[in-house]
Amino acid sequence: MDQRERAIACGDVPLVSIPILGRAIRVYGEWHALCAWCGCLAKISPDSRVGGEVCCMRCDFGMLHGKAAAAEAFAQEPKPPPPVCRYCNKTQAEGGTSKWKQVAAPCDTGGPNANVPPPLRKAWYCPAHWRSWLPTAHQSMRTSEIFAHICSKARPMIGADKDTGGDDAMLAEQRAAAATVKPKRTRAMKSIDKKLNQQRRNRQAQQH
Fold it and tell me: Which of 10, 37, 63, 87 could form a disulfide with 129 if both were Cys (CB 3.0 to 4.6 A apart)?
């Protein structure tokens, strides 16, 4: 706020100290105060109160109303439905000890995932129909194909149904081209060939 002859590094001059404990102050047209419950500095409005005390409205429910009220409110919240096996539609029992497993199923377009975006699609499986290859299979295979493999107790070959004929043909062409290319002869190999040719001509001259 005051003009200085030279620049001053940040932190060389202490900031302005404003006492705010037990009061509300106005900064740039906004009212601020300390929360009576957690003590943090918060912007307040006429609705920022719990009972007769100022509140930041971000405090924990149990802190404001007590642990008993928080437990009662938690019990009244709607609970998510229990998991249902995607294969046999069996619902997990509340007191069951068997562990059900969930996998990401972006390719599943039926059942509960019919109207769900691919990144949010999930599938549950009971212990009787869980397979170790299910997480990988659900990334690329259709659900009907997965059910067929579970029914026949077979393990799918992931990616075996993809057409690789083009890649095989390209690889064969590269191998044929490499076979037709003559290897490059070094200087030592040329010197040896020259000596062998000279020896062959000398033997032919001796025979004549």
Answer: 87
